[in-house]
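Posting for a labmate who doesn't have an account.
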Amino acid sequence: MNLLVKSLFKKGWTGLLIALLAVFGVAEGKRLLQSPAGQAALEKVEGEQTKRDNIDNRSLDVVLESETSDRFTQTEAHLHLSKIRELITKTYKVEPYLNVISTVIANEAEHKDTHYAFYNTTSNMWRLAQDLYTRLYAYEHPISTKAGAFKFLRFDNESINATAQGFLANELKERGLVDDNTKEVAFIMLSVNLALFGNVGFAGECSWNYFVKPQGHREPYRETYEKMMDQFGLTRDYIDEIMSLAKIYDTDEDTIVQVLVPIEKVDEIGYLAWVKGIPYHGETVEWILKHSKSKSFEEGTKPTIEKLTAQFAKQQEENKLFKSMMEGIQAGDFSLDKFLKVYRNTPWKIKEINDVTARLLFTPNVLLNPESGVKFYRFSTTPREKMEEYNKRLNDIIEKLIVEKESRGGTPVSPISKETLPQESQ
């Protein structure tokens, strides 16, 4: 069981105790807790809280084993907490984006019983490369209609053939800790939030922050499109025309990607994480925060993580934290399935709900497989008519590319694959 989930069993009465002390006063509250009448008082306050807030007071074991539909979607669960709503209101002006927010939650609700939702923000420029590769792939490989919401977010052999558990164990043995800022790891991993406003208040980890305040991520080079044309046996003559299409849908905001992963596949490719993709190991997180000279990432946390990484790489099993984290990996303590089950039913019990993130691996069988059941929905502030213009012009260019290839004696395109060509699902 996840270490965070385990720790929640020790905190079940905390909220009730606070309420009791607030009602009766500190001294009287403590006395009541030590008397037979105290138990009755506790039960009464608990009942009133349950009635007032409609709180789900099932034990966490029961929640984890339940096969009934979860109470909330992930974004609903996150927004259910008043402290989160207050932080969002304090940090962002959300009114201009209510159409995005409502559609995101509607998508989560529609797929709640079959998929978990994750969020990443990408530079607008990458939408073009994603669409081009996905549509060229569809021309070459007939795709079933169930893959209509699928998009390729990676191409050029950027993938790994390993489970999340295997990846973590190998990274710790080879490097000491995971670091998704390195080129090797960044290409095969997607940093995601567990809710639309996940990690609100932590600019470097919050997808919504990157959405409304673009950070200038690396954009695709011309070489990206050249490799794409070569892979599909197409001419490079239209690359300039293709790249110019990104101007049509450019906006002040970037693009949010909603990734819906089938529940039964989430632990195969994902794990509960902290900054830089480090597994969310409570003891290690506490150690890093305690030994950081500053709360800021660049000045405090980052140097401490780098120091600990070096220690882990050198000491391995001799280091108690390293050994504990490795044991946690083998025990499945960083399972997204277990954590999100609690998240979507009793979010108020998770102290770290706004601190945790997740990482998803690009594997050939799941995130890079149109038949895997994974769905990608992208959200931007581009007007609908602009998106229609962009899609039409992109499809026109793709038709020209295919016709040119066939005129050179290339493999004819299957009419079926043309009919199943994925369209924008915004």
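Reply:
Got it, the structure tokens are right above this. Confidence is low (pLDDT under 50) at residues 4-33, 413-426.
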